[in-house]
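Human: I would love a firmer grasp of how sequence relates to backbone shape in proteins. Could you go through the record with me and say what the backbone is doing? Here is the record:
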Amino acid sequence: MDHLLDNGQTRRHWLRAGSFGIGALAASELLFGVQSSEGSEGSEVTAEGASKTRFLTGSPRAKRVICLFQAGGPSQLETWDHKPLLNERQGEQLPDSVRQGQRLTGMSGNQASLPLAGSAFGFQQHGESGTWVSELLPHLSKQVDKLAVIRSMRTEAINHDPAITFLQTGNQIAGRPSMGSWLHYGLGSESEDLPAFVVLITKGKGGQPLYSRLWGSGFLPSEYQGVQFRAGKDPVLYLANPTGISGRSRRMMLDRLGQLHGIERERTGDDELTARISQYEMAYRMQSSVPEVADLSDEPESTFELYGSDARKPGTFAANCVLARRLAERGVRFVQLYHQGWDHHGNLPGGMRTQCRETDQPSAALLADLEQRGMLEDTLVLWGGEFGRTNYSQGKITETSYGRDHHPRCFSMWLAGGGVRGGVTHGATCEYGYNIVSDPVDVRDLHATVMHLMGIDHERFSVKFQGLDARLTGVEPARVVSEILA
C-alpha cells in the first residue's frame, strides 16, 4: 500500500505529478503525443510507467484501417455465397438434418413452416481467381482479385445490438473499447491535427440504431474514443469558436485551463485530466484541419466519376468513402464507416437492390483509388456486417419477394490491402448455406488478424481492468487467419 505524504497524497500520486510541474500541455504531448511512423509507434511509456513495446511484433503490414461496416446484416446469399441448390428447392422445408435443432429468433421461430428461398439474383465467376459474385455487385466483381472473401464467418449473437457490439468491441456487453480505440491506444497517431480514430455514418438511413459506445474508448482514457464527422457546415460538433470568441482568446483560455488541470492532477493524481488536456489541444488544432479535409471541392472530376454521382452529396456512403481516403492520406489510423439499412426481414430483393446500388461502386472505387495512390499495400480495408441471413424465408415467399431472418451460424466478409492476399476465398458453407463445413472464422479470429496485420500480438496486448488483463480478443482462443495473408 502507498504511504501517505504530508499533504495527504500517496507516493503514487506524487510520482505521477512529477510529469507535470511547469508546462502541463508540454507534458501532455510527451505522455500522449504523436508517435512517428518510423518505428517508434507503440514505444512510448504510459503514465503508469509500463512500456507498450512488449506487444509489438516488429513486422506490421498495414499502417491504417478503413472499415466499411454494413449495419443490419447483409445477406451472404445475395452477395458472396452462391447456393444454386436453394433455387432448385425453392419453397421446400428446411430439413431438420440441416437445422440440427439450432435456435431461431422469435421473428421466425414460431412460423408454421421454414421454406427454402433461393436468391433472386444471378451469380457469375469473376477475375483470375474465379470468385463467385452476385450480379448486384458489378463494380466489386472487377476487384475480386484484390479481395480475400471469407465465407465462413460466424458469431455468438443472434440479435443486432449484441452482435454489432461484439464485432466492434470484442464483447457483447457494452462498455468495452472499440477496435479503433485499441489500435489508437497501442500505436498512437500519425497525425498532429486530426484524430487517430474517425467515424463516418451515412446520412438519412433508417435501420438498427447506432450508439456512440460502438466507437467509445471503454475503460481506456477518453482521448482514444472515435470522433464522429458529420455532413454539413460543422463536421465536428462544438468545434468552431462561439460568436465573439477569437482564436487568440481560445488559445489563452486553453493555456490557463491546462494550468488549472495540471494543478488539479498534481493534487489528485487523476490521469483522466491528462486525457482531457490532450482532447482540448486536439480540438484546437482541428479547427483548421477538419474543414480542410472535409471539403471535397478540391477533388478533381475524375474522383466523382470513379466513386459515382452520390460522391457529390455530403453524407452519402460514396462521399464518406472519398472522405475516408482523404483522412487516410493525412495519417488517420482508423476510419470507421457505417451504412445502415441491411436488415431485410421482408422485401429483400428490393432492399438489396437499393443497398448495393448505394455501396457497390464507392467500395470498389475506394480500393482502386487507394491502389493508384500507392496506399492499398499498407491500408487494410474490411467490408461486412454483424451476422448473415437465413436460407429460409421469413414470412411468405411470392414470385417477387421474400425475407430472411438473422443467421449467426455463417456469413461473409471480405478484406483487402494491408498484407492481405488477393483473389482468395476462405472457408465454405454447406450446399444449403446454413452451416459452415470448413475453416470457420470467429469474430475474435478477425480481430486477431487485424491486430497481426497492424503489427500487434493480440495475446500480449492487454490493459489492466478490474484486476484482469483485458484484451480485444478476450479470453477465448483466437487465431490469426494466416490463410488469407500475403
Observations:
- The chain is about 30% helix and 15% strand.
- The chain has one domain: 45-100+110-239+308-484.
